[in-house]
């Protein structure tokens, strides 16, 4: 990546917005900054950019300032890993006192009585929830929009921030928050990260509390975070997972790294800028002394079908669990849920298919430490009201753009997305790192090493809080 296009990661003198979460928390812990100062500054920047990106369904300005004051008054402040760090939460996990809609106008629940476990862990670590971010209905699609709103990509507002954690990704890359919570059932963290030039990790099964919808889409969905640096992501993941430290131990040896670009979706191919970015990463891996081999994972038609069946059934299960009036659901989502009900009644949701895939991948990783692949085929989908289009149009667009993510949800394996070299127009590409069970810290360590070798710009230029004085914002 052209390092001249990247900031050094530090804000202008005296700045707060644009500072990484790790540094913000350290400055609040030391007393150099108050949590109230940090939150107030981010709320002001959020107000300046939100009108152009549509990231938030709810902004909790007064509540966030009150919570920040509580952090400042806490006798534990000097020990809080995320002291005073503003965060955003996706609109499919509960925040106490707020309504969780799951992106559906057919859902009108009362305010949540208690925080979801991941929100509780963030708050216990000193983070302050400044808002709830937008999602597509039932978090089913890889663009984020709904009646009256389209969430836009801060790098190019004519394009989508992707989905389903699209509001969270837009908020982070526009600098409104340094960290955002999201979750991933078919790529819903990694696709927005790819679209918006962020780094994220879908943890392996059971590493972070899930509790998403009726049954986590039959075990495929996991909670995680979106960030602009690997250190911030490691810190957020350690809090969400309950790890005692965010330290990333070095592997102590060169890794064996497999590279695959073959798409599981026929006809979907990586574009030229994406291939150049992947080649640049491979060159850096080889320069670092790792062994790079070309090897394809066994994503069989049965595994692909099993993934789709769980995605379809998840819509029906969640609509039933939430008690939705299906007549008020979007037409694409009604079709989605109806097909899921048919698939389940036909006996297509078979646990042994997922077990067989996990066994094959355990064999694959027997002599491979990490798999490197693309995340998406090219630039994000256009920013448009996709909810007004039919089920087939949505599914076809999603599959052609994002063929490389869902297998790792099906297998319950950790997968990380990180920025690659920029496209000729300056917008980001993305690289995926996949590992066996328990390899989260290995993936984070490798991503951090690549970040040092191939630094990326942390925020979209027009919205960049680190841009020189006088540059346009929003």
Query: For the largest beta sheet, what order do the strands appear in spatially?
Result: 1-3-2-8-10-9-14-15-13-11-12
Shape: globular
Percentage of residues assigned to helices: 25-40%
Question: Which spans have pLDDT < 50 for at least 5 consecutive residues?
Answer: 1-14, 470-474
Strand and helix order = HHEHEHEEEEEHEHEHEHEHEHHHEHHEEH
Q: Mean pLDDT, nearest integer? A: 95
Number of strands: 15
Largest sheet: 11 strands, mixed
Strand content: 5-15%
CATH topology: Amidase signature (AS) enzymes
| Count of domains | 1
Describe how the helices and strands are arranged.
Elements: H1 21-30, H2 35-53, E1 56-59, H3 61-73, E2 86-90, H4 117-124, E3 128-133, E4 145-146, E5 149-150, E6 152-153, E7 156-160, H5 166-173, E8 179-184, H6 190-196, E9 199-202, H7 216-219, E10 222-227, H8 230-241, E11 256-259, H9 272-287, E12 291-294, H10 301-322, H11 331-345, H12 351-364, E13 370-374, H13 391-401, H14 406-411, E14 415-419, E15 430-434, H15 440-453
Parallel strand pairs: 2-3, 2-8, 11-12, 11-13
Antiparallel strand pairs: 1-3, 4-5, 6-7, 8-10, 9-10, 9-14, 13-15, 14-15
């Amino acid at each position: 990546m052209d390092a001249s296009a990247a900031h050094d990661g530090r804000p202008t003198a005296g700045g707060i917005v644009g500072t990484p979460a790790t540094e913000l928390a350290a400055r609040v812990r030391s007393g150099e900054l108050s949590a109230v100062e940090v939150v107030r500054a981010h709320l002001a920047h959020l107000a300046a950019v939100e009108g152009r990106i549509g990231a938030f369904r709810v902004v909790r300005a007064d509540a966030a300032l009150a919570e920040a004051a509580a952090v400042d008054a806490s006798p534990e402040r000097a020990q809080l890993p995320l002291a005073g760090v503003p965060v955003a939460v996706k609109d499919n996990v509960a925040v106490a006192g707020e309504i969780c809609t799951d992106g559906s106008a057919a859902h009108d629940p009362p305010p949540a009585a208690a925080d979801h476990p991941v929100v509780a862990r963030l708050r216990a670590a000193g983070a302050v929830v400044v808002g709830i971010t937008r999602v597509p209905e039932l978090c089913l699609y890889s663009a984020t929009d709904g009646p009256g709103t389209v969430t836009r990509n801060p790098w190019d507002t004519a394009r989508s921030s992707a989905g389903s954690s699209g509001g969270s990704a837009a908020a982070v890359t526009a600098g409104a928050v340094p960290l955002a919570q999201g979750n991933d059932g078919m790529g819903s963290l990694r696709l927005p990260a790819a679209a918006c030039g962020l780094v994220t990790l879908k943890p392996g099964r059971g590493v972070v509390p899930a509790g998403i919808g009726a049954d986590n889409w039959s075990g495929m969905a996991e909670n995680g975070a979106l960030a602009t640096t690997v250190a911030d992501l490691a810190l957020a993941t350690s809090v969400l997972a309950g790890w005692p430290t965010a330290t990333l131990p070095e592997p102590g040896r060169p890794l064996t790294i497999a590279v695959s670009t073959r798409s599981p979706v026929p006809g979907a191919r990586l574009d030229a800028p994406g291939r150049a970015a992947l080649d640049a990463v491979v060159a850096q891996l080889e320069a670092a002394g790792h062994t790079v081999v070309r090897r394809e994972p066994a994503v069989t038609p049965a595994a692909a079908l099993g993934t789709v069946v769980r995605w379809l059934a998840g819509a029906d299960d969640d609509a039933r669990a939430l008690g939705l009036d299906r007549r008020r659901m979007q037409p694409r989502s009604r079709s989605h849920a109806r097909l899921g009900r048919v698939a389940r009644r036909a006996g297509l949701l078979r646990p042994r298919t997922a077990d067989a895939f996990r066994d094959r991948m355990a064999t694959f990783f027997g002599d491979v430490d990490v798999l490197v692949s693309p995340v998406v085929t090219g630039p994000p989908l256009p920013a448009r009201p996709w909810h007004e289009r039919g089920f087939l149009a949505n599914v076809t667009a999603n599959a052609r753009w994002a063929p490389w993510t869902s297998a790792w949800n099906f297998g319950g394996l950790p997968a990380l997305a990180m920025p690659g070299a920029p496209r000729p127009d300056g917008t980001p590409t993305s690289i995926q790192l996949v590992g066996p069970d328990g390899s989260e810290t290995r993936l984070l360590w490798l991503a951090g090493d690549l970040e040092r070798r191939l630094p990326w710009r942390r925020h979209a230029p027009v919205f960049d809080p680190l841009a020189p004085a006088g540059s346009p914002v929003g």
